[in-house]
Amino acid sequence: MKKYRVNVNGTVYDITLEVLEGEAAKAPAPAPAAAPAPAAAPAPAAAPVAGGQSVDAPMPGNIISVNVKPGQAVKKGDVLLILEAMKMENEIMAPVDGTVASVAVNAGQTVQSGQQLLTLA
Fold it and tell me: What integer pLDDT is reported at residue 10 of this predicted model?
């Protein structure tokens, strides 16, 4: 058994996976239910960049919509933009309270994983 911590949209889950070898690998094993981690173990925040905190693309995809403008105040969890990847729409949310300092992308633009989308001050 191997234990992992997984972060899904800001919610941290502790999961245990069973390693199968030989003949046992051919038979499907029941998947253990994921249990939420205690609230005391928050996901690490992205490192702030000069002039504010960068919000980067978690995966490659296409920007469907940009919901904020420079100067706009946002709260942690507000949807900043929608990123389409593998035919799924992913909400990119504000990691912290702040003000949008700059927006580096436009609707219809293709982005790569790790590319800066916007900066929060």
Answer: 78
Name which of 67, 43, 55 is nearest 121 in CA terms: 55
Residue 35's closest CA among 57, 53, 12, 17?
12
Cβ atoms of 89 and 76 within 8 Å: the answer is: no
* Any domain includes 41: no
Q: Where are the alpha helices (DSSP H) in 1-121?
A: none
The tally of domains found in the chain comes to 2
pLDDT in tens, 62-99: 999 999 999 999 999 999 999 999 889 999 999 999 99
Report pTM: 0.56
φ/ψ (deg, to 5) at 21? -130, 155
